[in-house]
Amino acid sequence: MRELKYCPHCRSKLKQRPLEGMNRIVCNRCGFIEWENPSPVAAAIVLLRDEVVLVRTSYHLSEGTWGLPGGYVERGETAEQAVVREIKEETNTDLELIGFVGTYSLRKKDINLLYVVFWGRTRGEKLRPGGDVHSVDLFAPEEALNTVGETSLSGQAILDWMRLTQGVRRDVQ
Ligand SMILES: [Zn+2]
């Protein structure tokens, strides 16, 4: 996120000061506050039979690395609607949502995102990459975890999902 220098409303020079528990960029003239709220992203752990769908994107945040499919929530959309739409775009399959996994915050340099992660399944046998995605593949859950890395955001979500679904995963396939 490029730091704002001038107020978008009155063009005065912006200042930094503590406000509601954080240092924030504010305009002392008109009262504008740059809250820097994160953008919501919806993603999912998608099962096809007993394997997890991972995608590789050409998107600059994750160039060349595997991760969970998903994308930005559009205006007027719920996270549930967004994740179904994104999975269709990125993998050409219909996601049947089963449950919620958790939310994850990603904040570094110019990245300021809140991931909302669901899990579900697809019966689509014809996985095909689309949109920003250039590869789609299936991985056994443990293999998916190793591929994305336990410390990555996708890895944290996969770990939480494994804990959450221990013992029930087999029943939904
Ligand atoms: Zn101002």
Task: Provide a quick synopsis of the model.
The chain has 173 residues and is an alpha+beta fold. It has helices at 79-91, 141-148, 153-165, 169-172, and strands at residues 15-19, 22-26, 33-34, 39-48, 51-57, 66-67, 70-72, 96-108, 111-121, 133-139. The chain has 2 domains: 1-35; 39-172, Nucleoside Triphosphate Pyrophosphohydrolase (Alpha-Beta Complex), CATH 3.90.79.10.
Helix content: 10-25%
Q: Determine Rg (CA atoms, Å).
A: 19 Å
- The multimeric state of the shown protein is single chain
Query: What composes the largest sheet?
Result: 7 strands, mixed
What does this structure look like?
The chain is an alpha+beta fold and 173 residues long. The chain folds into two domains: 1-35; 39-172, Nucleoside Triphosphate Pyrophosphohydrolase (Alpha-Beta Complex). It contains four helices and ten strands; from the N terminus they run βββββββαβββααα. It has helices at 79-91, 141-148, 153-165, 169-172; strands at 15-19, 22-26, 33-34, 39-48, 51-57, 66-67, 70-72, 96-108, 111-121, 133-139. Strands 4, 5, 6, 7, 8, 9 and 10 form a seven-stranded mixed β-sheet that branches. A three-stranded antiparallel β-sheet has the order 1-2-3, with no helix packed on it. The radius of gyration is 19 Å and the shape is elongated. The site of zinc ion has 8 residues, from loops.
